[in-house]
From TrEMBL:
Protein name: UDP-glucose 6-dehydrogenase
Active site residues of this protein: 258 (nucleophile)
SMART domains: UDPG_MGDP_dh_C (SM00984)
NCBIfam families xrefs: NDP-sugDHase
Organism per entry: Seinonella peptonophila
Keywords, sorted A to Z: NAD, Oxidoreductase
InterPro entries to which the protein is assigned, alphabetical: 6-PGluconate_DH-like_C_sf, NAD(P)-bd_dom_sf, UDP-Glc/GDP-Man, UDP-Glc/GDP-Man_DH_C, UDP-Glc/GDP-Man_DH_C_sf, UDP-Glc/GDP-Man_DH_dimer, UDP-Glc/GDP-Man_DH_N, UDPglc_DH_bac
An individual GO BP term: UDP-glucuronate biosynthetic process
Enzyme kind, highest EC tier: oxidoreductase
Annotated catalysed reactions: UDP-alpha-D-glucose + 2 NAD(+) + H2O = UDP-alpha-D-glucuronate + 2 NADH + 3 H(+)
Amino acid sequence: MKIAIIGLGHVGLVTACCLVNWGHQVYGFDQDEKKVKQIKEGVPPFYEPALDQLLQDTLASEHFLVHSTLTEAISQCELILLAVGTPISTEGKLDLNQLWQALEDLVSLPILPPYLLIKSTVPPGTTTQIYHRLQDRVEDVICHPEFLRQGNAIEDFQHPNRLIFGLHHEDSQAVIQQLYHPFQKKSHLFQYCTPASAELIKLGANAFLATKISFINQMANFAEQVGANIEEISIGLGSDPRIGPQFLQAGLGYGGPCLPKDLTALSTLAESPLLASTTQINEQQPHFLLQRIESELGDLKGCPIALLGLTFKPNTNDLQASQAMYLAELLLQRGAIVQAYDPVIKDTPCKQLQLAQTIEDAIKGSKAVIIATDWEDFQQLDWSLLQRFRISNLFDGRNLFPYKRAQKLARIFRITYHSVGRPTIRVE
Ligand SMILES: NC(=O)c1ccc[n+]([C@@H]2O[C@H](COP(=O)([O-])OP(=O)(O)OC[C@H]3O[C@@H](n4cnc5c(N)ncnc54)[C@H](O)[C@@H]3O)[C@@H](O)[C@H]2O)c1
Ligand SMILES: O=c1ccn([C@@H]2O[C@H](COP(=O)(O)OP(=O)(O)O[C@H]3O[C@H](CO)[C@@H](O)[C@H](O)[C@H]3O)[C@@H](O)[C@H]2O)c(=O)[nH]1
């Protein structure tokens, strides 16, 4: 099929490369000329594992053409995928300005492809509003939300656990089957529903995941008070198939460009006290670790601290709504001198934050070490380094070390190990 993609951000670019891999011809367009130039040169404008090679292969195949005008991109296409950003506004609503701008640009064109699929996350009613705007010019406008995770985006796109389509006409299923031809024999993956349901499935999924995390974090805080261990509790809870083991990792809380934004949008729209609590618990979570650090180290003024990890999760260079960055800011507000190390971050908007080139440089001269993002590199942390640099407290804000392993390492290297919702391991 000939497909146009408007918006070549995380979703649009990964989608473009994967669709070419399935044999489609893709025409991409983004209003950001710098981004277009970079993509044409084979350089992804953001970090996503394996995307650089995939992009280069995709461009070499000549089945992905990146255009700097919308007209060029959509001429001769059978469908358009819209993947522009929908950030959160100051009123806690999804800001649809990019979407309305893209729509107006489309409306001004003499001919439109018959199908428009909305991949951007939008509030209920948006897809139908667009359909009414374009009704006499297209066959259907379909809400087709995206569920890929940053850091795992290619794998998620290629192996979806469900494909949701909010349609206005049942006939539209035929074009969807063509688009997703590799899954033709996996009919269980396809869910057809109303556009409003599809829009709410997307917001509901992220709100539910965020709530699951806040739930386990609240359990972790309580477990700490009663001497229980959240690692054991998560295993016990997750073994019930009705609960499931995923998203039960206690820590500093969730961040990133999606979970906080979509949760806030749904919470505002539905006026939901449950979702408002989810946000509140998440905002509090870094404060619990901060309190622990203060009770262990005392006044943090002038206290050198190593912070490992800045991104909102591993395998991304995204700092949006990062709980690690939030904790760094809290420490700086207390007067601590924060030396941070992150495998992919070489610069941050926070000028007071000192960035080290290596884990060793961050640790050297520090009084304590905090793990704030669960990068795999930190699992390989050499605890003898801590001992060598006379660090006696390790605060694991992501429960990166399984408890039994932490007990062993703490004993060998004589380190006090603090984590979230698990008893502190002290070595006499
Ligand atoms: N990032 C994710 O992991 C993820 C996953 C699932 C869903 N989503 C949702 O998908 C949508 C896109 O997310 P993203 O992370 O790719 O956003 P992004 O901000 O990285 O990319 C959006 C792109 O759209 C371009 N753009 C904006 N207005 C345009 C216009 N009028 N014409 C052409 N290009 C335009 C921007 O320049 C930008 O490159 C959002 O609604 C988001 O909530 C994101
Ligand atoms: O048990 C867990 C799992 C995750 N997190 C945190 O939750 C945040 C989000 O993680 P994740 O969902 O893996 O990352 P995203 O890339 O933000 O993906 C979410 O947001 C995307 C954008 O909407 C959706 O497409 C995905 O399905 C949805 O998982 C991160 O800060 C994680 O550290 C935890 O604290 N505990």
